[in-house]
Amino acid sequence: MSEQFDLVIIGTGAGGGTLAYALRNSGLRILLVERGDFLPQEPQNWQPVEVFDRRRYKPDETWYGADGKPFHPGVHYFVGGNTKVYGAALPRFRVQDFGVVEHEGGTSPAWPVTYDELEPYYARAEEIYAVHGSTGEDPTEPPRSGPFPFPAVPHEPYIDDLSVRLRNQGLHPFHYPMGIDLRAGGRCIRCKTCDGFPCQVLAKSESDVNCVRPAVESQNITLWTKTLAHRLLTDSTGKRVVGVELERGGEKLTVQADRFVVACGAVNSALLLLRSANDKHPNGLANSSGLVGRNYMVHNNTALMAVDPFRRNPTVYQKTMAVNDFYFRGPDFAYPMGNIQLLGKLQAGMLTAAQPLVPRPILQGMADRSVDWWVMSEDLPDPNNRIELRSDGKVIVHWKPNNLVAHRKLVEAARQMMRAAGYQFVFVQPMGIETNSHQCGTARFGVDPATSVLDPTCRTHDVENLWVVDSSFF
Ligand SMILES: Cc1cc2nc3c(=O)[nH]c(=O)nc-3n(C[C@H](O)[C@H](O)[C@H](O)COP(=O)(O)OP(=O)(O)OC[C@H]3O[C@@H](n4cnc5c(N)ncnc54)[C@H](O)[C@@H]3O)c2cc1C
Ligand code: SF4
Fold first, then answer.
1. Nearest protein Cα to ligand 2, atom 6
2. In this structure, which of 39, 85, 204, 455 has its CB flanked by the most CB atoms within 10 Å?
3. Does residue 406 sit in the same domain as residue 460?
4. What mean pLDDT do residues 82-110 have?
5. Mean of per-residue pLDDT scores for the chain
6. Which of 82, 343, 376, 435 has most ligand 1 atoms within 8 Å of CB, for mutation?
């Protein structure tokens, strides 16, 4: 069986879904391919035990570390991809992030585009994802061509009080740009199960709701769910992709098109290119640089719980504030340290997976009295951190975290910040290989085909009608 389209987009997450939305009125006949189904709207969407302990929305898939240890990756195969469960924090990069940045652990190379070039696209994306934010609070914020589409998500009183405590330390806590539907008449009820959970009332700005559903209203866009892209096929020159082999409803079929976009997420996009090796591309499709799957990055991440045993934290929707005072440097550290942002309110059911030996009432007591942060630092591109596809289909993630001095400094700064704000106990939990929520870098973009997979428009250097449009390009 064979079908013909102008464009096939594989993957419906942040990259693929947003692209489909942007092209919905282009007149192109587009096929959107998604391995997962629509995520069901059901009570379990908001049940911590279902989502965290029972991993209800994660695939039954095992990847392996370089040491052979198995792990279950933090991926979500649904229409909307990882954005179904993401925290909906939607900040822009800072101007300096686009240039060469010297970190304690090495150099972050410049991107082949500037902030000014991307600014109009940021503005469009913020409209599509209904971003709520404010300006003038964070000294690191980049210039904008206009205000945020919607006013910032207000802090609840406990967080307002915390922001005063932080400002009293000379810090600049700011309202974090968020994509939740608090517009007049919007669907968001400000619940406590947002960050890490699917939204049961579809009020989170995510790719399924904000992009794919409106896109498929167009006559020109067809969505095939439960359809796995297995391999891309080229013509005899190897210069053009002519088809994609799919598995759909237990059947194999090939779809032909003029152009193809891979948007499967950084690991799965690399795997699809590697699986598509042929005699013209023996090391994987579009891989003459040898960089497909390499330079895998995920951020250095630590969850931090600050507990004041004498004060309950009644906040329901907690993820409204961030601190960037250590973003470019610290008080006694000349290198970037990173961003500190509030997490959605932690609950006992979210902690039991990480702390199985601690009795649940103790976890509940802590969660009732804690304020919770995500402490996040840059990691650096290292070609040895890579995705390997073994001949038996096994996925190996070679990952050795780097730039850790900066991260430890940031965790310590966050700890001191919360102690000074009156929290007697601060607990930290560094994230491991399975927390690959921020996976990126596996098909980096650049001007030189020897040192990058994609050109500055995310088209592959090697194959003229193939683009990779997801977090792989970072
Ligand atoms: C818990 C969590 C919290 C997060 N919080 C934030 C946040 O607050 N802010 C933020 O900016 N980012 C956040 N992120 C990260 C963000 O979700 C990702 O960076 C983003 O979704 C990446 O987009 P993508 O298009 O690269 O991949 P994805 O969104 O993962 O989409 C990939 C899609 O491709 C599909 N697919 C994969 N392989 C195939 C195949 N072979 N055939 C067909 N389809 C395939 C998948 O099913 C999926 O739908 C979070 C992520 C997680 C998991
Ligand atoms: S806070 Fe709003 S957007 Fe987030 S899950 Fe709850 S209702 Fe949905």
1. 191
2. 204
3. no
4. 98
5. 96
6. 82
Pick 34 or 362 by higher pLDDT: 34
Would 238 be classed as within a structural domain? yes
Q: Collapsing DSSP states into helix, strand and coil, what is residue 421? A: coil
Helices (H), 210-325: 213-216, 266-275
In this structure, is residue 290 part of a structural domain? Answer: yes
Q: Which of 10, 43, 67, 113 is nearest to 433 (CA)?
A: 67
Render pLDDT for 319-363 as a digit per residue (tens, 0 to 9). Answer: 999 999 999 999 999 999 999 999 999 987 777 666 777 788 888
Closest CA to 176 of 164, 159, 158: 159
Residues 316 and 168 in one domain: yes
Q: Which atom of ligand 1 is nearest to the CA of 16?
A: 25
- The domain tally of the chain equals 2
Closest residue by CA, ligand 2 atom 4:
194
User: Which of 180, 197, 347 is the pocket-test mutation for ligand 2 (most atoms within 8 Å of CB)?
Assistant: 180
Give yes or no for residue 198 CB within 6 A of ligand 1: no
Nearest CA to ligand 2 atom 2: 188
**361 plus 329 within the same structural domain:** yes
Tell me the CATH number at 446.
3.50.50.60
Of 269, 265, 272, 222, the closest CA to residue 247 belongs to: 272
Strand 70-71, strand 63-65: pairing: antiparallel
**Whether residue 2 has pLDDT greater than 60:** no
Quick one: DSSP state of residue 278? B
What percentage of the chain carries pLDDT values higher than 90? Answer: 95
